[in-house]
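From the methods appendix. Each design record in this collection lists the tokenized structure first, followed by the designed amino acid sequence. Records were kept in a plain field format so they could be parsed without special tools. The example shown here is representative of the layout used throughout.

RECORD:
FOLD TOKENS (377 positions):
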């Protein structure tokens, strides 16, 4: 179990961010509004728990030591400086008018971001500027992945998946078939993608023919995340039904189901060909591995206090990054089973995090900003 530091933004800052999030969702479609409300409830519960713990732990700290920091505050400050030394912010990118929901590094060294403002932006990191904006979705852009030849695929609350040619700055195809928000998309080889949706299904698509190849059913609630294992023959999915499932694309069926989490599984990320990381509203990050998928077991179990981890990114062998609803970004050593750095990255939810090449990690927030980080190994 990894300890969590004291670097989270203040309750006041988090409440302001929550208010902005709720205000921006007022005119959204029903399923999007429902997601925001459910997430807001979890954040409010987290804040209430934090305030209660703080009040009970230090009921008289200020009156007893006016003008001085308590021992805990001093220790927290030292711990904060120590952890910050392990990660450095290289810059911030601003331009979206909605929450930044997805990030991906491009082969050109640029990065692309998807947003609740319905757009995709491509950024020059060195110049800290947007070089182009891709528009076409009529709903939130929720997920974004890199395909071959510098193409992008995006998933949206408008129930579609779009493929984009970044060089030509245009959409080349639109895939439709889901009956609900498309929450996640993952590449399968060079010419296929899989998508997860609020309609509880996973769909496999052929990009050459632009046709749906199969529909995978088994989850009893919205599929929130999908990812493909390196073999290209298996995919993993996480759902609001609290389950993780691993599917065979060749046999078009579920190979294994894992009941490891006590709340929604928010994100699943492949860590090579035979290892999977997941995060959940139950405030845990778990890693599964084993000789075969059927024999997978949870071998690493990180418990976070306060706020839930929302997103994950695989940084390379033994390295994982996470973003949480309290605005922090954490860098994990999964082999040593410990948190290497905790950074108070944003003043509100970290919606997405991604390895973008050259030892850099990008984080996107509910507050519409993107930050670029480097973590010392």
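DESIGN:
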């Amino acid at each position: 179990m990894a300890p969590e530091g004291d670097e989270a933004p203040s309750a006041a800052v988090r409440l302001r961010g929550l208010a902005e999030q709720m205000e921006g969702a007022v005119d959204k479609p029903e399923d999007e509004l429902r997601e925001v409300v459910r997430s807001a409830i979890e954040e409010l519960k987290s804040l209430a728990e934090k305030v209660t713990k703080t009040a009970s732990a230090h009921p008289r700290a200020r009156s007893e030591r006016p003008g001085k920091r308590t021992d805990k505050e001093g220790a927290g400050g030292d711990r904060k400086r120590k952890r910050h030394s392990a990660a450095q912010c290289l810059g911030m990118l601003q331009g979206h008018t909605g929450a930044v929901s997805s990030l991906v590094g491009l082969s050109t060294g640029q990065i692309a971001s998807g947003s609740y403002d319905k757009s995709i932006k491509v950024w020059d990191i060195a110049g800290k500027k947007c070089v182009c904006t891709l528009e076409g979705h009529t709903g939130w852009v929720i997920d974004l992945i890199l395909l071959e030849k510098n193409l992008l695929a995006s998933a949206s609350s408008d129930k579609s998946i779009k493929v984009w040619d970044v060089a030509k700055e245009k959409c080349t195809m639109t895939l439709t078939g889901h009956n609900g928000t498309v929450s996640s998309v993952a590449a399968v080889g060079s010419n296929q993608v899989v998508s997860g949706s609020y309609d509880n299904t996973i769909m496999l698509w052929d990009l050459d023919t632009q046709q749906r190849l199969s529909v995978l059913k088994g989850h009893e609630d919205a599929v929130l995340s999908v990812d493909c294992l390196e073999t290209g023959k298996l995919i993993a999915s996480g759902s609001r039904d609290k389950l993780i499932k691993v599917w065979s694309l060749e046999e078009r069926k579920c190979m294994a189901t894992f009941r490891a989490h006590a709340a929604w599984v928010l994100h699943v990320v492949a860590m090579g060909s035979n290892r999977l990381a997941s995060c959940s509203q139950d405030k845990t990050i778990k890693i599964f591995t084993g000789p075969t998928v059927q024999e997978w077991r949870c071998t690493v179990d990180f418990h976070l206090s306060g706020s839930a981890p929302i997103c994950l990114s695989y940084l390379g062998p033994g390295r994982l990054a996470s973003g949480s609803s309290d605005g922090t970004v954490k860098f994990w050593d999964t082999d040593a089973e410990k948190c290497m750095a905790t950074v108070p990255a944003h003043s509100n939810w970290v919606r997405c995090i991604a390895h973008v090449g050259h030892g850099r990690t990008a984080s996107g927030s509910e507050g519409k900003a993107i930050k670029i980080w480097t973590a010392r190994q």
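APPENDIX NOTE: The CA atoms of residues 2 and 338 lie 5 Å apart.
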